[in-house]
Fold this sequence. Notes:
Layout: H1 3-27, H2 31-45
Helix pairs in contact: 1-2
Amino acid sequence: xxxxxxxxxxxxxxxxxxxxxxxxxxxxxxxxxxxxxxxxxxxxxxxxxxxxxxx
Length: 55
């Protein structure tokens, strides 16, 4: 996966993190808990793994 493919994914993940921050503040849930739950949901929705190549 090259950088051009990774940029839209990173933007979406940053928006999700911002949404989780706002939602966790409103629900008075720790931010880390919200991130873990969002991460679990995201991994179920993604069609393929996101990872970094060692090359």
